[in-house]
């Protein structure tokens, strides 16, 4: 079996190696509404810590991949595993790269079953085309909520972003979100790939909150019903279930206890599928 993971920073394992940096303030309990600890955020991005982070970026990223739930599952199962999670990802980027990655993986391994575990991100992130030949980048993700909250400076407000800020609402973001879910669900079904959606920082409760003003929009209702988004694992609810344990990173991501719990849940899913498909593995 081949395991494929994709998503944003919660899938990539962001902050899981920060304990190796100077003056690490440690994990805190996860409370609602969740906010980034100001003192922790200051530690994360300023002074000697940021300089040390930049010097060790590749080392830290490698350790994050090993410590995150995808890395834990890979180590426990010994299956070939790909983790394409990337911080700041939009659903556009997650679905686009998942489809191209899975096409290539399936082409090179036609007789090996594939399990895809895809973490969702907030609908307000979107992807724009760029052309950066130096870094070989052709797409860049933006977060509409962050742009609005920070009153973004003129250098990043090109005409497309200005248009989106001016005219687009949660309705437009949700339409795009469910279109992406439908696209990836359909692709996996046609190609006999088992897809498992993961609620990372956001789950159905968050989607319902963003949808609250558009409950009578027919096209959104139709797309949502057709998408039939169900979560195999709800990382957010797992964080809530751990109560007063120290599980929240200074920058807002989930710490090692949550990733360990999620890994165990994913292994249960894989083992359940294995019992049904032992002859194929």
Helices, strands, pairings?
Blueprint: E1 2-6, H1 9-12, E2 28-29, H2 38-45, H3 47-55, H4 57-67, H5 69-77, E3 80-83, H6 91-108, E4 114-119, E5 125-132, E6 137-143, H7 144-150, H8 159-167, H9 170-190, E7 194-199, H10 204-211, H11 218-227, E8 231-234, H12 235-241, E9 246-248, H13 256-276
Parallel strand pairs: 1-3, 1-4, 4-7, 7-8
Antiparallel strand pairs: 2-9, 5-6
How do you describe this structure in short?
The protein is of the alpha/beta class and 281 residues long.
Number of helices: 13
Helix content: 40-55%
Structural class: alpha/beta
Largest sheet: 5 strands, parallel
Shape: globular
% residues in beta strands: 15-25%
Distance between the termini: 5 Å
Strands side by side in the biggest sheet: 3-1-4-7-8
Helix and strand string, N-terminal first? EHEHHHHEHEEEHHHEHHEHEH
State the low-pLDDT regions, or none. none
Mean pLDDT: 88
Radius of gyration: 19 Å
> How many beta-strand segments?
9
Keywords:
281 residues, alpha/beta, two-stranded antiparallel sheet
Structure overview:
The protein is an alpha/beta fold. Helix content is about 50%, strand content about 15%. The protein has helices at about 10, 40-45, 45-55, 55-65, 70-75, 90-110, 145-150, 160-165, 170-190, 205-210, 220-225, 235-240, 255-275, and strands at about 1-5, 30, 80-85, 115-120, 125-130, 135-145, 195-200, 230-235, 245-250. A 5-stranded parallel sheet has the order 3-1-4-7-8, sandwiched between helices. Strands 2-9 form a two-stranded antiparallel ribbon. Strands 5-6 form a two-stranded antiparallel ribbon. A hairpin with a 4-residue loop joins strand 5 (about 125-130) and strand 6. It is globular. The chain starts with a strand and ends in a 5-residue tail after the last helix.
């Amino acid at each position: 079996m081949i395991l494929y993971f994709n998503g944003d920073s919660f899938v990539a394992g962001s902050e899981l190696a920060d304990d190796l940096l100077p003056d690490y303030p440690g994990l805190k309990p996860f409370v609602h509404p969740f906010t980034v600890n100001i003192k922790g955020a200051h530690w994360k991005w300023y002074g000697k810590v940021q300089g040390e982070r930049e010097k060790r970026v590749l080392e830290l990223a490698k350790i994050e991949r090993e410590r995150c739930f995808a890395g834990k599952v890979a180590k426990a199962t010994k299956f070939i595993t790909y983790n394409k999670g990337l911080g700041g990802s939009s659903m556009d980027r997650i679905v686009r790269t998942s489809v191209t990655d899975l096409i290539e993986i399936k082409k090179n391994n036609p007789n090996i079953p594939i399990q895809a575990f895809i973490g969702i991100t907030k609908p307000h992130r979107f992807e724009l085309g760029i052309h950066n030949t130096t870094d070989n980048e052709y797409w860049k993700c933006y977060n509409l909520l962050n742009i609005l909250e920070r009153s973004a400076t003129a250098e990043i407000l090109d005409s497309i972003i200005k248009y989106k800020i001016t005219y687009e609402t949660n309705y437009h973001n949700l339409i795009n979100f469910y279109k992406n879910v439908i696209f990836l669900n359909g692709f996996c079904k046609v190609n006999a790939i088992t897809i498992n959606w993961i609620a990372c920082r956001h789950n159905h409760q968050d989607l319902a909150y963003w949808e609250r003003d558009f409950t009578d929009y027919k096209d959104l209702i139709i797309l949502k019903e057709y998408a039939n988004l169900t979560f195999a694992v709800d990382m957010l609810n797992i964080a809530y279930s751990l109560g007063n344990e120290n599980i929240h990173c200074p920058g807002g991501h989930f710490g090692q206890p949550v990733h360990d719990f999620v890994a165990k849940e994913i292994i249960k899913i894989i083992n359940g599928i294995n019992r049904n498909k032992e002859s194929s593995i």
